[in-house]
Fold this protein.
Amino acid sequence: MTRRTAALLLALVVTGGLVGSAEARTNDRKKPIVFVHGLSRDSASNCASTWNDMKRKFRDWGHTGSFTTVAYYKGDTNCSHWISHHGRHSRHHASGHDGNHTADTSIRHLGYHLAWTIWNHHSRHGRKVDVVAHSMGGLVTRYALAQVQRAHRHFPRRLLVEDVVTLGTPHGGSRWFAVCGRLQCGQMRAGSDFLVWLERNAWEPDGKGGTDWSTLGSDDDNWVAADRASGTARDRDPEHDYIGSCHKVWYLPSNDIEHGDFLHDTSKRISADVYRLNCRSGSWVEDLTSHWPVRRADLAVTFGNR
């Protein structure tokens, strides 16, 4: 059985009503959402300029749950929660600390802190959350869920994460010129030990009750190629995927979506040109009347069939 087939069977089990009613899918805009930013080579990210456009439109479109923007770099600003307060700095691939985390801190270590953040704020209280992650933030999230699912002794015993949307995340590696000499850049290089580990051990990691993954990439992304971000080989062959996400969206060049545009293109028009895959159908289709990234993220965290 291929990984692709296994992921499909798992999705059918989870969505087919075979899980307990306490873990039934919630198709609404009431859940809390955790926003995880990406790499900053100077170890400083501004959560307001990163996420405010998306948060504002999510509210306009009816989201009522709490929004959490997480900080993990020493220079992060305008974020609502520090993941550094959860877990221990000395545990699980601790490295690259200079008063707090830097771009030389292992992505594995950030995933450890993120897992404890979601546990302490939400999962321990029985609350499901969704995650929207940009760029490297998607790898941090993927690693966190994978180690919890693997019952790693340094991680929480469960996470209740119903949906994850990744935007321009290098599941298959970043472009060659994105290498910056920092540890995190090296971990995101195609073929790195870290990405190989994810492909082998975090194919489609699930929180308790199942997690629905959506991965978005763009041909015009100047840091992460569309196939590497959407999580499929360039020929869209499901036997050569980089992640078993149930929903893959590949924005075509006509859209002119660069790496940062995933966060700020808030159009509600249904006019984007994409290839997309839904794991329930198992095939790629060309769609010239699709949703733009922020709206696509909204629908992905709201409905299991988007």
User: Anything to note?
Assistant: The chain has a mean pLDDT of 89. The domain at 30-302 is CATH 3.40.50.1820 (Rossmann fold).
